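ARCHIVE CARD
CATEGORY: sequence design from structure
SOURCE FIELD: tokenized fold
FIELD CONTENT:
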């Protein structure tokens, strides 16, 4: 059964710094890598990790180098797309040794898992917090969808289109996400959209498309639906998301949030 692990919003900062003077994002990612490595022997085979943006906080070469040092301990290959905290040229240079990294243009790719495909799309608008899919990105999506012949598809973006109720985050979501969802609605097979950006776990259905936002290994965005709330972080437990293809009771892709850290147990329920 095909599977991948989604990591998002790692927000790596320079050595000796905390993100927003509060969050030790490097320690959180180290703990996430250790948690993933520890659980892998208990899982069905996992093909890779997919990092859905905001790899760094400022997009500097030093931050990407630090990120790569941490990811070198991960016992999985990985692919990535940028978020609004990334810088495309610096990210491209940092991952130029990776086969999934295009030489120019948007950082986007297609990965065929056999039972399903994942299309990673670049929603970065450099200098802005909101996301947009450029014409080249939408054209890439159209070309790949035409080749899939109804195979179940997951489209990975940093910015979601669904609303979370956190006003400041929703104001900076994927501005032209309707163009993406229209394509997935018209697609001849099952379609899903997975994202990051909100640092929380959310799920909804828009038409026939399931839309999901994944938690971050580090801090969360404070949950408040009040319009006047200041956009804030909170140190809730971090997580990553396991995506597994299951053949029963019907073929489908199942998500499972894995908390970051070590926990007491397991103990048998009986005896």
């Amino acid at each position: 059964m095909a599977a991948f692990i989604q990591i998002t919003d790692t927000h790596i900062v320079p050595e000796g710094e905390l993100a927003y003077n509060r969050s030790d994002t490097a320690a959180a990612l180290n703990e996430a890598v250790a948690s993933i490595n520890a659980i892998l022997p208990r899982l069905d085979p996992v093909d890779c990790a997919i990092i859905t943006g905001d790899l760094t906080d400022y997009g500097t070469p030093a931050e990407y180098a630090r990120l790569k040092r941490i990811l070198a301990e991960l016992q999985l290959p990985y692919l990535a797309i940028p978020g609004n905290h990334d810088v495309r040229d610096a990210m491209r240079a940092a991952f130029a040794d990776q086969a999934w990294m295009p030489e120019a243009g948007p950082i986007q790719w297609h990965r065929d898992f056999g039972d399903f495909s994942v299309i990673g799309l670049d929603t970065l608008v450099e200098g802005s917090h909101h996301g947009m899919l450029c014409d080249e990105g939408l054209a890439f999506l159209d070309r790949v969808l035409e080749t899939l012949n109804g195979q179940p598809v997951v489209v990975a973006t940093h910015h979601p289109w669904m609303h979370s109720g956190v006003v400041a985050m929703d104001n900076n979501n994927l501005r032209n996400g309707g163009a993406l969802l229209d394509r997935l609605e018209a697609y001849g097979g099952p379609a899903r959209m997975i994202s990051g950006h909100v640092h929380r776990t959310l799920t909804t259905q828009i038409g026939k498309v399931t839309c999901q936002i994944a938690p971050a290994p580090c801090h969360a965005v404070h949950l408040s639906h009040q319009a006047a709330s200041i956009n804030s972080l909170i140190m809730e437990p971090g997580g990553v998301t396991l995506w597994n293809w299951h053949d029963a009771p019907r073929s489908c892709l199942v998500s499972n949030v894995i908390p970051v850290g070590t926990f007491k147990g397991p103990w048998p329920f009986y005896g």
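CARD ANNOTATION: The chain is about 25% helix and 25% strand. The domain at 3-259 is CATH 3.60.21.10 (Purple Acid Phosphatase; chain A, domain 2).
SHELF: design records, drawer C
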